[in-house]
């Protein structure tokens, strides 16, 4: 029977099947995309990297583990020796570049071997499946295998073959807490994985299979056997001797302060810094072999002539309260170290010149009455002499001429911020250390003197990022100030010849809490700090007699050539006998407040600020007497005293043996 011409015709079966297949593929893709969005791969472990620091010569000199305690470093496959990649793929995944993350041939082979022999002969895991398990570690179960297979497909979909390979290279366990090929090569062989011999490459391929049992530092024989087996399985003839230079599983710890600073800024992975390990070691050795102030420590910063940081020692490893603090970035009172810049800006404005006569005599500026450190006045003196001798009154007069607000604003415009006490406004006390500054910023100011008045931020990365310098003051003014500072008398037993003349300034903060020395020579800048990081007083310390000799010793080890990069440093000279180290005192003595101090305790609003009391020496516990009356102190709390009214007060401390000492202060 024939159908009429207008009857509907059925589509051939293959058309329907094709249409249904297309719809199924579309639905499958939509489902896969949805699942991929709902369940993205967890890359937390891949992103949780360690931080390792290199110097300018690419020498590893410090490092810190990741947040989960691993030496994990991201690695790109182009940065790895081709011999390693060949061994890895031949050993772990021969068809890596063509399968979608799961190799069906490997799975069928493993299933057949299991069925014939009753036990697993070889696994079917691909590199993508191993990477999935490294990202989210779990026990080896059938359910885990299925999860790894699905994640492997997802990883290949998202990142491709090269991306999956990079993830594996950064996660492969290489023994202990070491993860990734870069970390394994650095810590076991002392170099990066770009250049590996066959034995080294084979060991790094073998280690992820049994990272604990094959650690070359603990099980060298097992590691050698595994290395030879990898070479044999891949058809490579093993070398006559599988020689390694096995290093340590931990990097040296030569720049902990810089490491902590970069970690706080978010730096991770390998970072090449401007430091040079020979200079860093030399500065560390000088500071560690020089006795610090009692209960205190040292810090130093060295800048090259190109404004890069050659050495950064935020703490020299001294044992004292707060000595773990990074004093390079800590805010401290600069003492008199800002005086050269007050005079320089006065020269810039034309209100003073190096030979202008100023009067170093008692003077009052509103409610501020400054004094010299030695409590004496020296009469009429030139600006040159006043700066070289660090007289206080002339510096305050110079700041009064240019204005404290102008001074602090000019420094701010040149990248240096002074930290005023809470609620304070710029005042003439800035000339004598009445504001806080970081050693890093102080180095920038003195670096401007070494660069004809141009202010450039010190750089800690290598190669140095480009930056636009600002003009602090003119070239002529910078040279005037530098010339004056070259005439500053050196500390006892220190010497300087015409070729190595040092322009420097020292400073001592109020209460002898900080001792500074800042020096410039042949374009190099050296800043040295001494004191107690916890802010307590260190009686007897001064910048001239404590910090300056150390600054001179560091400066004497630096080359006089313009670059200074990669040049061997001379041997260290013997310890200078002039360094004043305070001996331990058997009798008690008052540290704070110091004798003769004038303390502002009563505010204009009627509030009274308690005065903290601190003593040292003798035998604890201490008893305090205020104006011959005992002071009640609570156990476990630092003693403090709230004055009844302004005037002079007598403070005495008595130790457990009955020995006593006292000071007299003025409260207002």
Automatic annotation (TrEMBL):
Domain Penicillin-binding protein transpeptidase: 295-521
Transmembrane segment boundaries: 14-35
Boundaries of every Penicillin-binding C-terminal domain copy: 584-665
EC number: 2.4.99.28
Enzyme class: transferase
Pfam short name (any one): Transgly
InterPro entries given in the database record: Beta-lactam/transpept-like (IPR012338), Glyco_trans_51 (IPR001264), Glycosyltr_51/Transpeptidase (IPR050396), Lysozyme-like_dom_sf (IPR023346), PBP_1c (IPR011815), PBP_C (IPR009647), PBP_transglycosylase (IPR036950), PCN-bd_Tpept (IPR001460)
Keyword Cytoplasm: no
Listed pathway(s): Cell wall biogenesis; peptidoglycan biosynthesis
Gene3D superfamilies: Biosynthetic peptidoglycan transglycosylase-like, DD-peptidase/beta-lactamase superfamily
Span of domain Glycosyl transferase family: 72-233
Reaction equations catalysed: [GlcNAc-(1->4)-Mur2Ac(oyl-L-Ala-gamma-D-Glu-L-Lys-D-Ala-D-Ala)](n)-di-trans,octa-cis-undecaprenyl diphosphate + beta-D-GlcNAc-(1->4)-Mur2Ac(oyl-L-Ala-gamma-D-Glu-L-Lys-D-Ala-D-Ala)-di-trans,octa-cis-undecaprenyl diphosphate = [GlcNAc-(1->4)-Mur2Ac(oyl-L-Ala-gamma-D-Glu-L-Lys-D-Ala-D-Ala)](n+1)-di-trans,octa-cis-undecaprenyl diphosphate + di-trans,octa-cis-undecaprenyl diphosphate + H(+)
Keywords: Carboxypeptidase, Glycosyltransferase, Hydrolase, Membrane, Multifunctional enzyme, Protease, Transferase, Transmembrane, Transmembrane helix
Family: In the N-terminal section; belongs to the glycosyltransferase 51 family. In the C-terminal section; belongs to the transpeptidase family.
Protein name: peptidoglycan glycosyltransferase
Source organism of this protein record: Acetobacter suratthaniensis
Lineage: Bacteria, Pseudomonadati, Pseudomonadota, Alphaproteobacteria, Acetobacterales
